[in-house]
Design goal:
9 strands; globular; 6-stranded mixed sheet; binds inosinic acid; 200 residues; binds magnesium ion; 4 helices; alpha/beta; Rossmann fold; 3-stranded antiparallel sheet
Length: 200
């Protein structure tokens, strides 16, 4: 059995990811010239992205991780954000860049921004590889953005479905029957609307 068999459509190929991540790294290096930002990777989805992004920073930087959970096992957001692992260090006076894989409803990032703001960072910015803009419920300022994607549940390059597929080197959509195996399909009628509170 190969992971490849489960793929319906590749949305962002490997080369496009590589090129865009390099551009984001160059932009951050320019913007933070003379500073030493603290990258805060959100576990677990951002791990591949943040490690590639760091390689393109030409300025000194540091890395820490924060783990949150707003999802059960499937594709449905609960709107409830829990901190599962806090930062190891103080961010007071630091230039913080939160690095996440994808902003979907925006609940997770909105919550993290509110929480980290209370710790007096010198600055606080958001870097997200993917912006699933059609699904946004909470406004989130995305200072560094990789790609805007349509309302599809994607996996690969760190993003998972039920813990799997993070190791795929591209961003893709799985065959509908794969999503259907454990949960309702993410494209099923009657799913979360952006007006309503998420029922995921
Ligand atoms: P939000 O709070 O709805 O913005 O959800 C953000 C988090 O949900 C992301 O950091 C991901 O971990 C997860 N997520 C949202 N959409 C997807 C997707 O299409 N594939 C995989 N994970 C997703
Ligand atoms: Mg995440």
């Amino acid at each position: 059995m190969s992971l490849q068999d489960d793929i319906d459509e590749i949305l962002i190929p490997e080369e496009a990811l590589r090129a865009r991540v390099r551009e984001l790294g160059q932009k951050i290096s320019q913007d933070y010239e003379g500073k030493e930002p603290l990258l805060v990777g959100i576990l677990t989805g951002s791990v591949l992205f943040v490690s590639d992004l760091m390689r393109h920073l030409t300025i000194p930087c540091q890395l820490d991780f924060l783990a949150t959970s707003s999802y059960a096992e499937g594709t449905q957001s609960t709107g409830v954000v829990r901190i599962l692992k806090d930062l190891d260090q103080s961010i007071e006076g630091r230039h913080v860049i939160i690095v996440d894989d994808i902003i979907d409803t925006g609940f997770t990032m909105d919550h993290m921004l509110e929480m980290l703001k209370t710790r007096y960072p010198a600055s606080l910015k958001v870097c997200a590889l993917l912006d699933k803009a059609p699904r946004r419920v909470r406004y989130v300022p995305i200072d560094y953005k990789g790609f805007v994607i349509p309302d599809k549940f994607v996996v690969g390059y760190g993003l998972d479905y039920a813990g799997r597929y993070r190791n795929l080197p591209f961003v893709c959509v799985l065959k509908p029957e794969i999503y259907g195996q454990t949960r309702q399909t993410p494209t099923a009628p009657g799913r979360t609307s952006v007006e309503g509170s998420p029922v995921r």
